[in-house]
Amino acid sequence: MEIFNIVVLSISGLMLFTLAGLLRLINPIKNYWKNSEIKIENEVNMLSEVRGMSTLMLLGGIVILLGTIIPELTLTSFIVAILLFGGYAIGRLISFGIDGKPGKMIIIGLVSEVFFCSLHTFCLVQILV
């Protein structure tokens, strides 16, 4: 089970660090909004919000990746992953209920967030039991 935990943390940590973090921080217009039908060019306030969240994802990815090499951080890494993926999923579900059905890319994001949150929750339960 330990190898499975390392694989789960590695995949999600790398995904958060690179895709949701670093690439969106460097060029949010190209890497974040590309297929979402949302235009943010010249929207300084929105770009600031995107870069702020991207930095949070990047740092969360680092903590999660550290859990793969520092055994004392494994529990913390799973908790951070659950909070990040679960937080996004809950926020999207609330928005879905209040604001209406989002576009296809947002729904794909929601599905992946629920999947990764569930996967990390499963791993956390296995560690604690």
Total discrete domains: 1
Distance between the termini: 12 Å
Topology pattern, helix = H, strand = E: HHHHH
Number of H/I helices: 5
Radius of gyration: 15 Å
β-sheet strand percentage: under 5%
What is the mean pLDDT?
90
Give the number of DSSP strands.
0
Which structural class matches the secondary elements? mainly alpha
Uncertain residue ranges: none
Search tags:
129 residues; 5 helices; 0% strand; globular
Task: Give a description of the structure.
This protein has 129 residues and is mainly alpha-helical. The chain has one domain. Helix content is 82%, strand content 0%. It contains five helices and no strands. The chain has helices spanning 2-26, 28-31, 44-69, 74-99, 104-128. The longest helix has 26 residues, at 44-69. It is globular.
Question: What's the SSE blueprint?
Answer:
Blueprint: H1 2-26, H2 28-31, H3 44-69, H4 74-99, H5 104-128
Give a short synopsis of this structure.
By secondary structure, the chain is mostly helical. It has helices spanning 2-26, 28-31, 44-69, 74-99, 104-128. The protein has one domain (2-128).
